[in-house]
Design brief:
The complex is a heterodimer of chains A (228) and B (292).
Chain A: E1 13-15, H1 19-36, E2 42-48, H2 49-58, H3 60-68, H4 81-87, E3 91-96, E4 105-113, E5 116-126, E6 129-135, E7 138-142, E8 148-154, H5 159-170, E9 174-181, E10 187-194, H6 200-207, E11 212-218
Helix pairs in contact in A: 1-3
Chain B: H1 6-16, H2 20-32, H3 36-59, H4 72-81, H5 89-106, E1 110-112, H6 122-134, H7 138-158, H8 163-166, H9 168-186, H10 191-205, H11 221-241, H12 249-262, H13 279-289
Helix pairs in contact in B: 2-3, 2-7, 3-5, 3-7, 4-5, 5-6, 5-11, 6-7, 6-9, 6-11, 7-9, 9-10, 9-11, 10-11, 10-12
The chains are: A alpha+beta (228), B mainly alpha (292).
Pfam families (chain B): SDH_alpha
GO biological process, one term (chain B): gluconeogenesis
EC number (chain B): 4.3.1.17
Chain lengths: 228, 292
């Protein structure tokens, strides 16, 4: 079934005008913000396809920036997000993306703060639902519906077993998982969508694995997500 | 969920003495792994947001982000209040409220997607005006939203609810079917009557294309929400009077799928056809984006 429950029909609560061009765009921005871990001081936002054609009319620009401020889809500050972000010290550049893209509603964000940069490509697939399709040039696939762990690590044998062993011990169910690497024994990324919240202790334990470089999480339910 | 068709919903409700709304609440609680009270509380909050949107659209400036539309709900409401509406007061109020919520959406206000943002006015228009008229409490209305959600769940999983996939029939049409069937239940009709209301309503929007000017959720989306609320009232009345949808609603849903799949891409939310490509539509597009 494509639609699994009543709140995928009645909902989400959102600021208009478009579930795909506004609510979905907020979520793409928010995914990038949570990966960076703090408010970006610089944001380069490239729109592709229908996003590029109509982003001003739909407030897609305001929506993405609202996400970078960690606002939820129904936050009444969305129409003022760009002004709020600039006041908070964010410099923002919008552009029309070049090259191939996988979906008519695609945005590619390059955001940075304090020497750290996140490059994220997200697509808005309808009804406010999104898929993140690449992170820092790794090919990924996750929806941000579930608490999501993003591990940057070295490509070496036993790495995934070590991670899943910790999940098994903690009784955490993995709903879906994907990984990609830049080359054999090079840099790699593993993404896990989980059925339970991600604790600080769990992240610390994963960070302690010698070949793990960084652990980030995305969890939209933590502030004001759907179902609250 | 224990059902995937309207027919199955009617059968379960008749056997177990349930309504679409109470059945959906039970099934939703199981799906979410939470209590019925917890799931009910979420929906009750959504109903609050719907009422706020109606109020906002009738009292505040709703000029859309593009500046093309706004304040039509207030124009209509004025005529209804003056007793001049040809529709009469009750249907006129439902129409004004539906326009109000759609205008709030177009002006970047807060709404509940039902089932989408483009069709967000129809259910609040019908629900809030009927609540005022019949004096129902919020609990009754919240159960009604589960009923509307159950109908939408079946439509969405057997056909579609987005304009990009199936045209406006899938968005506005689905919302009308959801509002019509749930209004029958709110008024004490049987599950079988609610099912007929869904079928009757959906038949009336088959083939409706999605052709928004400039790709925006404004023209003609907002007025179609106003018309939609009135159609939902009409379908509920026919069904409660004993009018049957001779073609069962599940079969009408299949027709919507067939028609939507056959619809050319230019009529599925691309702004490449229909009203969007009229001389005036093109002019507006040029003004908005500097191209035709």
């Amino acid at each position: 079934m494509r639609f699994k429950d009543v709140f995928s029909i009645i909902g989400p609560p959102m600021v208009g005008p478009s579930s795909s061009h506004t609510a979905g765009a907020v979520r793409i921005g928010r995914a990038a913000r949570q990966l960076l871990g703090e408010m970006p001081t610089h944001a380069d936002i490239q729109f592709f396809g229908s996003f590029a054609e109509t982003y001003q009319g739909h407030g897609t620009d305001l929506a993405i920036v609202a996400g970078l401020l960690d606002y939820d889809t129904d936050d009444l500050r969305i129409p003022r997000s760009i002004a709020n972000a600039e006041e908070a010290g964010m410099t923002i550049v919008f552009g029309r993306g070049k090259g191939i893209f996988s979906h008519p509603n695609t945005a590619r964000l390059t955001i940075s703060a304090n020497d750290k940069t996140v490059i994220l490509t997200g697509v808005s697939i309808g009804g406010g639902n999104i898929e993140v399709v690449s992170v820092n040039e790794f090919i990924v696939k996750f929806t941000c519906i579930y608490p999501t762990l993003i591990l940057s690590h070295e490509d070496r044998p036993g790495m995934i077993a070590e991670v899943t062993r910790i999940m098994m011990r903690e009784g955490i169910n993995i709903g879906s998982m994907c990984n990609d690497r830049k080359g054999r024994s090079g840099e790699a990324m593993t993404v896990l969508e989980l059925d339970s919240a991600i604790t600080r202790e769990l992240m610390a334990e994963l960070e302690a694995i010698s070949t793990v470089r960084e652990v980030a999480k995305i969890d939209f339910s933590e502030r004001n997500g759907k179902g609250q | 969920m224990r059902f995937r068709t309207i027919k199955q919903m009617v059968e379960i409700c008749e056997q177990e003495g349930l309504t679409f709304g109470s059945l959906m609440l039970q099934e939703q609680a199981k799906q979410a792994g939470q209590s019925e009270d917890e799931q009910f509380a979420i929906m009750a909050k959504y109903y609050e947001i719907m009422k706020e949107a109606v109020h906002k659209g009738l009292t505040e400036d709703t000029t859309s982000r593009s500046g093309l539309v706004g304040l039509d709900a207030q124009r209509v409401q004025k005529r209804v209040t003056a007793g001049d509406a040809s529709l009469g007061g009750d249907a006129g109020t439902a129409m004004a409220y539906a326009l109000a919520v759609s205008e709030v959406n177009a002006s970047m206000g807060r709404i509940i997607a039902t089932p989408t943002a483009g069709s967000c006015g129809i259910i609040p228009g019908v629900f809030v005006s009927s609540q005022e008229r019949f004096g129902w409490d919020d609990k009754h209305m919240t159960t009604g939203l589960f009923s509307a959600g159950a109908i939408g769940y079946v439509i969405a999983n057997n056909s579609f609810v987005s304009g990009a996939e199936g045209g406006c029939q899938a968005e506005v049409g689905s919302a009308i079917g959801m509002a019509a069937g749930s209004l029958v239940e709110l008024r004490g009709g049987t599950p079988a009557q609610a099912a007929h209301a869904v079928g009757l309503a959906l038949k009336n929007t088959l083939g409706l294309i999605c052709d928004p000017v400039g790709g925006l959720v404004e023209i003609p989306c907002i007025v179609r929400n106003g018309f939609g609320a009135v159609t939902a009232l009409a379908a509920a009345d026919m069904a409660m009077a004993g009018v049957r949808s001779v073609i069962p609603s599940d079969e009408v849903i299949q027709v919507m799928l067939e028609v939507g799949a056959a619809m050319p891409e230019k009529h599925r939310e691309t702004a490449q056809g229909g009203l969007a490509q009229t001389p005036t539509g093109k002019q507006i597009m040029k003004k908005l984006y500097g191209k035709g």
